[in-house]
Backbone:
């Protein structure tokens, strides 16, 4: 099988049509004529954005409240936040929500018509507003189409084109190539500026909002020379496997609604691990807590919602209909019986992981911008500020659209190196010409099998990480070259596997490098958060075709307004309660 | 379990589900039993990629698709074997 070819030209190319991508496209369209959004699915039915349920809403804050919100958010990030970005989010977030409301996004309101503030995981003082993400994305789709933005769907962008024909480039990004799997075409797009809005990186674990988000944007940006931050935080933790029967998102919403996490003995388990935040603690803490309870024989663990009112359940249905849909299918009434929840881990981006960007959403590679969860959520970094990804997508999308469009206007068209797109065509389509029983999914499964066990993912140490690194290398050298694709559906998965495995190896290398426990990374051999030496972001970058570097960005606390009371080593709660033999 | 059934009496081959599915699971095929159900019908050709998001069922105008949230192959849950 071979594919036909098609080429299009645009001023600004946005890769990924979720909240961040659509906001970017809409803003860019106000500045330039020709804006194109490419999506691997269908805008409005795609990605993580349709599962958004809340956004941090810095609305009409008085100066005192502003300071309190800022303080709480910075503390939440363990002082790792890029405070410049955080202030941008707090200052611009309210206006961005107002604009979405004007597009028809149905935010929940009080009887008097004002937005209804709610508590969400990670925050007590600062509050969020609720809206069903799917309805939000339907509004954005309508808006994007109405403004004459070109939508190209069912296309996977695989690589970026550069002015010097090299990756990493010393020139600028001038477009991208990919697979149009609806029309069986190899697509080349020439663009003056490119915005990566591909959302978080996940694996194929039957998790509805990340199964097809495989880090393609992270990979292509990294290949072109952009830095990836926070790859060491890449253990993606979940506890949305319910009753050992079904999976459904919405746990963060439940955490904000006063759910109790209990073990088989009826104890509220977070009293042991995070008595301050209890159920509003981070995902990583909850998953490790569930793991330890189970491993020490006090499991399984349950989400206890017996205190919920009828009104709470209606609330839930409005905001996370997938969760309540699943409850209905299995005739479960969480008001009468706690729901068993189980945790699992895979490699995937968490808060703090992603493409490093500056306040203009520039990646450091000329002509290449990134937004939302494709970036490392700099305002939040390794923290768990409420609604961090959705809030950041909204704010950064707008900024990136504006900056990229202005760049496109000023920079103009750059020549495209035909040899580069021809070379990439061969590389991307290679699995079509192989004959084997190995498919892209085997790579995803292989990574999860290697990294998934708790000893490697939740409680790693130097020896275990070295072993994981070696096994991933074998997967790349021995299995990846065999991946074949009988059709374009499988070709997409084969290329997704390339992205995912590349990033998985980087993640493990980063985990080996950070010698402390921070955010979602716990190191059994360094079971403390080291604020004396650790308040820095780990950055990975390609400087040459065969040279990768690890660098640091020291959080410039001297310049910031919020400072840690003292810089010390803080022992992880898991250091004292549990140790694998 | 993913897509559990597509009712050929109801499916009118409109193809909306194919656009909707974020995992590219569905295709339209010519009916295998044209004497009973003529025309094109939706089929979960790549059923293994379905992640039970239920969007196809939600968007299907005649309501022909049934999806279960049940997971056929659940990810391994804790406690993992530690050795």
Residues:
């Amino acid at each position: 099988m071979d594919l036909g070819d098609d080429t299009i030209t645009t001023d600004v190319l946005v890769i990924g049509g979720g909240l961040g991508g659509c906001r970017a496209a809409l803003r860019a369209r106000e500045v330039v004529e020709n804006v194109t959004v490419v999506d691997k699915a269908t805008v409005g039915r795609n990605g993580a954005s349709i599962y958004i349920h809340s956004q941090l809403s810095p609305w009409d804050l008085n100066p005192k409240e502003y300071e309190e919100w800022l303080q709480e958010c910075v503390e939440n990030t363990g002082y790792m936040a890029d405070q410049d970005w955080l202030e941008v989010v707090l200052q611009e977030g309210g206006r961005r929500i107002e604009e979405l409301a004007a597009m028809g996004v149905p935010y929940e309101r009080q009887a008097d018509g004002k937005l209804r503030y709610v508590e969400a995981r990670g925050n007590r003082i600062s509050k969020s507003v609720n809206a069903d993400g799917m309805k939000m994305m339907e509004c954005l789709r309508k808006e994007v189409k109405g403004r004459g933005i070109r939508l190209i769907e069912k296309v996977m962008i695989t690589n970026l084109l550069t002015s010097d024909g090299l990756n990493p480039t010393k020139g600028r990004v001038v477009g991208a190539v990919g697979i149009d799997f609806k029309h069986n075409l190899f697509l080349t797009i020439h663009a003056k500026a490119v915005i990566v809005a591909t959302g978080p990186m996940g694996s194929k674990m039957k998790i509805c909002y990340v199964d097809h988000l495989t880090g393609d944007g992270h990979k292509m940006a990294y290949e072109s020379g952009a830095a990836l931050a926070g790859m060491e935080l890449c253990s993606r933790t979940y506890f949305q496997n319910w009753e050992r029967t079904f999976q459904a998102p919405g746990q963060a919403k439940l955490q904000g609604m006063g759910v109790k996490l209990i073990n088989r003995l009826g104890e509220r388990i977070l009293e042991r691990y995070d008595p301050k935040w209890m159920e509003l603690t981070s995902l990583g803490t909850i998953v490790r807590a569930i793991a330890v309870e189970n491993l020490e024989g006090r499991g399984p663990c349950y989400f206890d919602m017996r205190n919920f009112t009828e009104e709470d359940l209606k609330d839930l249905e409005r905001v996370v209909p997938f969760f309540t849909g699943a409850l209905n299918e299995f005739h479960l009434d969480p008001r009468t019986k706690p729901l068993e929840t189980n945790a699992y881990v895979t490699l995937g981006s968490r808060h703090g992981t992603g493409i490093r960007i500056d306040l203009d959403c520039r990646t450091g590679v000329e002509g290449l911008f990134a937004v939302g969860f494709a970036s490392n959520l700099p305002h939040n970094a390794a923290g768990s500020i409420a609604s961090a990804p959705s809030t950041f997508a909204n704010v950064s999308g707008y900024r990136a659209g504006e900056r990229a469009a202005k760049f496109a206007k000023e920079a103009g068209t750059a020549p495209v190196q035909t040899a580069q797109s021809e070379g990439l065509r061969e590389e991307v389509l290679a699995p079509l010409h192989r004959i084997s029983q190995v498919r892209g999914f085997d790579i995803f499964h292989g990574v999860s099998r290697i990294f998934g066990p708790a000893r490697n993912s939740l409680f790693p140490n130097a020896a275990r990480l070295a072993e994981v690194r070696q096994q991933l290398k074998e997967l790349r050298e021995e299995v990846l070259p065999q991946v074949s694709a009988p059709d374009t559906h499988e070709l997409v998965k084969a290329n997704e596997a390339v992205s995912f495995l590349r990033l998985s190896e980087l993640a493990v290398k980063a985990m080996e490098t950070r010698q402390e426990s921070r955010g979602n990374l716990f190191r059994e051999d360094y079971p403390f958060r080291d604020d004396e030496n650790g308040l820095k972001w780990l950055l990975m970058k390609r400087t040459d075709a065969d040279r990768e570097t690890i660098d640091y960005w020291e959080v410039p606390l001297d310049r910031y307004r919020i400072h840690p009371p003292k810089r010390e080593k803080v022992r992880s709660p898991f250091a004292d309660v549990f140790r694998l033999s | 379990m993913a897509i559990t059934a597509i009712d050929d009496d109801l499916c009118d081959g409109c193809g909306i589900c194919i656009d909707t599915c974020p995992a590219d699971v569905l295709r339209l095929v010519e009916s295998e039993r044209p004497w009973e159900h003529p025309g094109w019908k939706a089929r979960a050709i790549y059923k293994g990629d379905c992640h039970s998001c239920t969007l196809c069922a939600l968007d299907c105008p005649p309501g022909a698709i049934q999806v279960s949230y049940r997971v056929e192959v659940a990810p391994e849950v804790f406690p993992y074997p530690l050795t």
Observations:
- Chain B touches chain A at residues 19-24, 45-46, 48-49, 51-55, 59, 68-71, 73-82 (CB under 8 Å).
- The beta strands of chain B are 2-6, 27-30, 40-43, 65-68.
- The first helix of chain B runs from residue 16 to 20.
- The helical segments of chain B are 16-20, 55-59.
